[in-house]
Amino acid sequence: MVGAQLDLPADRSALSTPVPAAVTRLAATVENLRAELARSHADAAGRSLIEMAAGVLIERLHCAPAEAATQLTVLAEQANLPVLEFAADLVNRVAADRISEIAHDFVASSAAPQPGEVALRLRTAQAHTLASSDSQAVARSILETALRPLGAAAVAIWAANADQSLSLEGSAGFGEDEARRWRHVPPGVATPARRALDEREAISYPTLAQAALPTIGQHEFGGGRIVVPAGTGGRLIGVLEICWPGDAPTGSQPLQRQFEALAELCATTLETWTEPSGHLGADRDFDELQRLVDGILDPCLVLQLAPGSPDFPLDFAVRHLNPAFVDFAGRPAGSVAGARLLEAYPLAAEAGGLAEKVEHVFATGEPFRTRDMRLATTVDGVALHAQAQLSISRHGQHVVVIWRLDDGTPRVARLLQHAQRLGRIGGFEENLQSGQIAWNDTLYDLHGLPPTAQPISLEQLANYAHPDDRAAIGRFLRTLLHHHRPAATAFRLHRPDGVARHIRVVAEPVHDQHAVVTVIRGAYQDVSAQHWTEVALAATRDQLAHSEKQAAERSRLALQLQHAIMPPARGPVSLRDLQVAVRYRPAEKDHLVGGDWYDTLTLPSGEILLCVGDVAGHGIEAATGMVALRNALRGLAATGAGPAQLLAWLNSVTHHLIDNVTATAVCALYDPATRRLRWARAGHLPPVLLRAGRARALPQPSGILLGALDQADYEEAHLDLEPGDTLVMFTDGLIERRDQSVQASLDSLLALSEKAPNAADPADTLENHLDHLLRYSSADTDDDTCLVGIWVREAPSTR
């Protein structure tokens, strides 16, 4: 058994008999298995973190998984960091989650000397959580990777049950007996974890003695405690409790957010937790009662006694709802199940109400039945009522409540109540002869008045409105009271509590048998949300029009800049014994101005510079980045350095002098005297050589994209060209497809190159070849495309 513990005396002479060899081997085996298990947990977390980092490189570099893994190793070596630490840093840079925010806070804080270690610890704990759904393993990982460096000695992960009890789902640092004793905390037991759940916020205790609450490890660790609620989507499902042997670390906002992030990691494993069979659902009596009520055709609740306060000695929780249950307030059954009776139906606490009847039945055992029981509750602050036939009976420790709602008028009244609640509508009726005014409950709420207040008459309405709206109210009253016609208007209501609401009022006169107006009835509706939505939409429309105008102007400037630097090519250019032609195809959408660029130049040394590149992104930023890189490479090429050195310098320029820019590039130098082509690449696709009717991609020397690192080395390759050779350098917009890999797209380009037609005039062959590649390209990413074609003539030119 792996978990066995062999307690051997430290002084072997104290043993009356020698330890058998079998026992010694067993102890060694147990230790080896423990070490192997710990390594397995660490390896699983490390593999998960490295796989996340490799996924980032696949998305950013558009490369295969194997190449991404190699690139990750190369980048870690160049950064002089372990692969695991580099992977955590990479994931932290691209993520926009709680952990990346915490790392940013630590970087900005002068009190955090090693922010990289914080990010690594949190990312490792996150990876372990993703690799395992076992809360026990997650607790060990959180303690060892994230909390042990902060001085913590133990950690506990509690799960909150529907019956207000707690279950210890995972722990680390405590003894096995201690964890077993605290496996389940019954309802009503006050612990630090229960207090954090009730207050829905993290609680810190300088020492456990100051807490004066029982909890796990209270005899082992009497130092500081921090308990943090764990939940997802606004729902609390557990608690993370952290223990220190001495004082807890001084609270700070970055540190507090780190604990909250760890609690969120615990919540991911508690999401899959199911209530143990040894608690609520296991007793036989309840199983029989559950089967009984499930066969009843009327709505039925099964209540169980729950710990209460001194004000309510008998408090009941809703333990089960039968399949026929329908809440008379229209709420889903899930919002009632598991709640306290007075939480789900607070108005049941009124005198003679449902709660009082349930208490009497539970205390005396006498059943209660009535044909006319008023049920009430509140939904969104609106009181809802229903009349029902009610039956209450006790079954052991449970109380069964069965109701049957009356049909007819009460059902229509409930529908009307819901319509008024959802539409924020309050009805009124004013008797012009007696002066009596009747309001419903919603109308009091709209006006911000208590139900006992005196309703406001129509004549007084202008006194509660905004001064600018009093004229509109006057026209409304004249139409209604003088012309005796239905009327409507909107105004701003100033409530006694200082809140201003936008109200729409609709009213009509009611005539008696003598055609005399005796009653005015109508409704007020709170249209504040609609008003502010219209205001927000108008502001959004104005902002959108301004943004579109700015975007169009930026696109126009970027196009002008692009055309000024790289005007459309008009025919091939002769450079010594080379014929060079260029094709540039912008993105399909006019506003997607890209960063593709090319350059061909004869250097003072007599060599010919050939290059093509692609700046990441679109728009004015990409266009300006392309201009900066193209001009920088021209200046650097004048030094006479080789292609690899030129790219190394260009990488430093990209990293230090151009903000937030990364790019790929191919740089080549051609010597007309020897026809030798030297070239290097920075994360770019390789050139394609067409020789004697056969096309092939040149072998790829190593080299990462420009701007990724401060310093990078690039490998140089060379190729001896022959007369009649055609070399094509291109950007990824020529071949990229969403439904296939880069290698498959490159293979399609090679096949397409071999099918290009030859022109009658050899001088036109190169242009026909480039036009053929553009015309029949299967790319579907709407990206810019740039091609540079080089054809070697039969004899060197004398020009």
Automatic annotation (TrEMBL):
Domain annotation ANTAR: ranges: 30-91
An MF annotation (GO) of this entry: phosphatase activity
Organism of provenance: Streptomyces tateyamensis
InterPro entries: ANTAR, Bact_Sigma-Reg, GAF-like_dom_sf, PAS, PAS-assoc_C, PAS-like_dom_sf, PAS_fold_3, PPM-type-like_dom_sf
The entry's keywords: Hydrolase, Transcription, Transcription regulation
Presence of the UniProt keyword Hydrolase in the record: yes
Pfam families named among the record's database cross-references: ANTAR (PF03861), PAS_3 (PF08447), SpoIIE (PF07228)
Record's keyword annotation contains Transcription regulation: yes
Protein name (database record): Antitermination regulator
